Amino acid sequence: MEAIVGKIYQLLTVYGLKVIAALAIFIIGRWVAKGVRKLVERLMAKGRVDGTLISFTANLAYIGLLAFVIIAALGQLGIQTTSFIAVLGAAGLAVGLALQGSLSNFAAGFLLIIFQPFKVGDLIEGGGVFGVVEAIQIFTTQFKTADNKTVIVPNSKLTSDNIVNWTVKGTRRVDLVFGIGYGDDIDKARSLMADIIAQDNRVLKDPPPQISVSELADSSVNFVVRPWVKVEDYWGVYFDLTEKIKKTFDANGVSIPFPQRDVHVYQHDADAKEKSA
């Protein structure tokens, strides 16, 4: 009995301190990891970084530190962690290869959140989609199109192609083309269009709208009409000006030519019969 008690006492003496040290490493290390996570969140919040990225980066830092603490605690107990680390590395490599596409989307999402070529609420064209950005997530970006469809695009598709941001400058140019007949008065047509544009409060004064003759086409003299508007007023101004200019031209005798074709029919058989008779 004394031998057994002595053996237990010896084991407690040898391993008890190691267990206590391992627990201390784990508890203190976990506390430090939580502190680092809070510090990362605080610093990134001061830098006005996107909330999604703050949460992800802070949790990633916490998990990485916690894994290091667990390995250190196991090493304190005398457990060989070399093979354990090797297994984790091999497993990480396998997972990385299996999730190659997802990791590509993740990296692209990270870049989008860091560099912010666009933000939620912007009207952009990218990844084959034209719409308003509703959400920027780690793996995907969600759009709302003009016909009220929700389109979800992988982030890697956005970063691998051109991104056109229609909102970031705040204004857009409305490009319109109107043609008048060669017999119509150019100055009169220009004056009518200038008056219509001046009456629309949505058209910006600076930069001033452009009304210029752009082309002497086959059947018309073409004007380019280019007023500047706020991004949200673009389509309203586009449609309203098109309609008002057409009605004003009609009311003031300015013609808008349209393609015409004359068809001549020759009856060869009838002509031949008349000559023979």
Cα-to-Cα separation, first versus last residue: 146 Å
Tell me the series of helices and strands, N- to C-terminal: HHHHEEEEHEEEHEEEHH
Q: Which of globular, elongated, flat, extended, rod-shaped describes the shape? A: elongated
Find the count of extended strands (DSSP E, 2+ residues): 10
Structural class: alpha+beta
What is the topology?
Elements lengths: L1 H45 L4 H26 L5 H17 L1 H16 L7 E4 L2 E8 L3 E6 L4 E5 H5 L4 E2 L5 E3 L2 E5 L5 H14 L10 E7 L4 E6 L1 E3 L3 H18 L16 H9 L1
Antiparallel strand pairs: 1-2, 1-5, 2-3, 3-4, 6-10, 7-9, 8-9
Describe, in plain words, how this protein is organized in 3D:
The protein is built from 8 helices and 10 strands. With 277 residues, it is of the alpha+beta class. It is elongated. 15% of the residues are buried. Helix 1 runs antiparallel to helix 2 (51-76) and helix 6 (186-199) crosses helix 7 (234-251). The termini are far apart. It has a 5-stranded antiparallel beta sheet. It folds into 3 domains: 2-98, Helix Hairpins (Orthogonal Bundle); 118-165, Roll (SH3 type barrels); 171-251, Alpha-Beta Plaits (2-Layer Sandwich). It has helices spanning 2-46, 51-76, 82-98, 100-115, 155-159, 186-199, 234-251, 268-276; strands spanning 123-126, 129-136, 140-145, 150-154, 164-165, 171-173, 176-180, 210-216, 221-226, 228-230. 54% of the residues lie in helices and 18% in strands.
